[in-house]
Amino acid sequence: MLVSLGSLLLDLTIAPHGQLRLEDDQEASISLAGGGQAANFCAWAAALGERARLVTRIGDDEAGRRLVAEIESGGVEVRAVVGPGRTDAVAVLVGESGDRAFARQIDTSKMLRAEDLQPEWFAGTRLLHLPGYSLFWEPIAGASRRAVSLARAEDAVISIDLSSPA
Q1: pTM score
Q2: CA–CA gap between residue 2 and residue 127 (Å, rounded)
Q3: Angle at 160 between CA 70 and CA 63, to 5 degrees
């Protein structure tokens, strides 16, 4: 079992067809999908035939329920703590040369706490994957440390995604 702890969020990607101009409309390609580094890792692992489990925190809202159903339909087991607040979202603006800028609403996933984690969520873990973001904010950093302890008890390998180059 491959396990990742971190965000499951709504990704809104906007790729304008040409230069954006203030106070004007611009044609663009716009997509809405599930995302988040931990969720993406699990989705790719499941697509490659691995058993994958996502440990996350979502808001008690339609977006969170939809995202969980979407990733589960791709074969990922989800252990989601549901809390108050809105499920996280990121808007990605893609420039003409492919460079990207991100605007984020990260309220919920970083509130995952060590005491939220159940030891059975880590039973049989061969690899625990942690996005770097999960190490920088409390209380999710405490949850990450506990996840490492639970995964090490299973003799799992620990991997860390360095996240954003900035």
Answers
A1: 0.92
A2: 5
A3: 25
Residue 120, token pair as written in the block: 């059975």
> What residue type is 165 in one-letter code?
P
How many CB atoms sit inside 10 A of residue 27's CB? 8
Host H or E run for residue 68: helix 62-73
Distance, CA of 165 to CA of 156 (rounded, Å): 27
C-beta separation of 113 from 142 below 8 A:
yes
Q: What are phi and psi of 51, to 5 degrees?
A: -75, 130
| The token pair that represents 53 in the structure block | 């489990």
Mean pLDDT, each 10-residue run in order, the chain (166 residues) = 97 93 93 96 98 98 97 98 96 92 93 98 98 93 98 98 73
Dihedral (CA of 16, 21, 22, 24) sign: negative
What is the bridge-based pairing of β-strands 28-35 and 9-16? Answer: antiparallel
